[in-house]
Write a structure and sequence with these properties.
Layout lengths: L1 E3 L11 E5 L7 H17 L2 E8 L2 H6 L10 H10 L4 E6 L2 H4 L3 H11 L2 E7 L3 E2 L5 E2 H11 L2 E5 L3 E2 L2 E2 L2 H9 L3 H8 L3 E8 L4 H4 L5 E4 L10 E8 L8 E9 L12 E6 L10 E11 L7 H20 L2
Parallel strand pairs: 1-4, 2-3, 2-5, 3-4, 5-8
Antiparallel strand pairs: 6-7, 9-10, 11-12, 11-16, 12-15, 13-14, 13-16, 14-15
Length: about 325
């Protein structure tokens, strides 16, 4: 898949079907739209092009939002490549880009992306002040020689699948609901760093992850996970129990949110390595215990519950 940061850098040898959007998380709704576009492109001999942005337009226009992104730009590119996309343009969304008019941007699409078909959702709009809505685009297409295909929303239990809804599921700790909407378990990648090393002293060593504060994180609690020793996953899957929280049992004077995971039946030095967690289920909320013995007893119960959950897959 060709990856560039501007339309001018695209190199296409044929007209293109184009989808434009933030596509954060590349959830099942995105997959339906882009998958249909890719199949259409392949059937008609066109290129399948996706145009996206970083930072997310909402982050730029409405202020920075910690714990926002469902996927990193790199993970998004991997998901799109797996769908069969031929080229990916990731614009830098800044004041200059936000000021481009719909007419000016469409002219760039026709010239540089060889726009033949524009694929979008019902509420899509492009250009400064979102002037380029579906009706506008259809009228422009009649003048400029492209068509517009509008995809109906994808639903789960009568609700539209959206990145906003998935973020709320994560804030609620509902990782199984998030996975249904994503079409795969939610993933969080970080670098293993040194922690307080309390886990070693109680016989349950953990890997402490430094994760981007921009990336969405599930609610505090204990989760059943799969762990991968690679940023994009792979075959090196290891079962794990992950705690997200503030370690209330240890009464820290400066509590800080931590992500720490215990890899089951695993022993190796992980410091400095990238580790990806897939969140399968939430076992319980974060709790404060009367002491270390009570904490260890609960951790043992959590591990047993995680093994049972994984065995039932």
């Amino acid at each position: 898949m060709q990856q560039v940061v501007s339309l001018e850098a695209l190199s296409l040898d044929r007209p293109a079907c184009v989808a434009i959007g933030a596509f954060d998380g590349v959830h099942r709704g995105h997959q339906a739209l882009i998958g249909d576009m890719v199949r259409r492109a392949q059937a008609t001999g066109r290129a399948a092009v996706v145009i996206t942005f970083y930072p997310h337009p909402s982050v730029f226009l409405r202020g920075r939002r910690p714990s926002f992104y469902l996927s990193t730009p790199e993970a998004k590119a991997d998901y799109l490549a797996a769908l069969g996309v031929d080229a990916l343009v990731t614009h830098t969304f800044d004041a200059a880009f936000a000021a481009i008019t719909a007419d000016a941007y469409l002219a760039q699409l026709v010239r540089h992306a060889r726009l033949s078909e524009l694929w979008c959702g019902e509420d899509f709009a492009l250009g400064h002040n979102r002037v380029g809505n579906v009706a506008y685009l259809r009228a422009a297409g009649a003048r400029l020689g492209f068509t517009v295909t509008v995809q109906t929303p994808s639903l789960i239990d009568g609700e539209i699948i959206s990145s906003t809804r998935i973020r709320q599921c994560l804030r609620d700790g509902a990782v199984e609901q998030a996975a249904r909407a994503l079409g795969r378990p939610f993933r969080l990648t970080g670098t293993v760093v040194e922690g307080a090393k309390r886990g070693r002293t109680i016989g349950v060593p953990t890997a402490n992850l430094a994760v981007s504060e921009e990336h969405a994180i599930p609610a505090t609690g204990v989760y059943v996970c799969h762990a991968y020793l690679a940023a994009s996953g792979g075959t090196d899957r290891t079962p794990a129990v992950t705690n997200i929280g503030y370690r209330p049992t240890f009464n820290s004077t400066e509590p800080k949110l931590t992500v720490e995971t215990h890899l089951l039946d695993f022993a190796a030095d992980l410091y400095g390595r990238a580790l990806t967690l897939e969140f399968l289920a939430r076992l319980r909320p974060e709790m404060k215990f009367s002491g270390v013995d009570a904490l260890v007893a609960q951790i043992r119960q959590d591990i047993a519950a995680a093994r049972a959950r994984l065995a039932a897959e």
